[in-house]
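call fold(seq) -> tokens
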Amino acid sequence: AYTNPAVAVLQNVTVKNNDTTQCPESSYLVVPTLPAGFLQSPSSFTTSTLTPGSRITSVVNITSPISGTAGSYSFSEQGQSTTNPTLTATTSATFTIIDSIPPSVSITSPANGSTVPSKGSLKIAASAQDSSGIASIRLLLDDSVIKTCNATTSCSLNYQVQDITSGSHTITATAIDNPGNSISATISVTK
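ret:
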């Protein structure tokens, strides 16, 4: 999901008067059909008068909602003759929003700067959030993966401390959301 400023695209809309040469000049009212929450500027417009066979291109600015779901959205523009409202034509296009916002992740255990016990186990845990869903969370000790949890917002294990050497160590949690964006959090511990 995205929660960034609205995404905008400029779209060319070309209107052509396909009337025969015996028909009068006409202007056309162009009205959009947009997905919920999307806006167009201008919201609708009327072309200048077009002689039969002539065309005009106008630029419209279509803007997505400020927050929502990434994906493809279809919209259309319908032109209607102002001299003969039964004459209409419609064109459509697709607006794609890509989720490029990484998830959030935090290490919930142990606390940053804590001391590893000399015996037993150390609980290592992390949680992640993203409105598009979490694909995986990886837990690393000194850059070595010690556990991967898939399709969940939390991941934990009890790591045997005899496998940890004396000195300073880093614990990292990396979360990957369903679109593939990733982020990491790192803490330090000492044994």
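The two ends are 40 Å apart (CA to CA).
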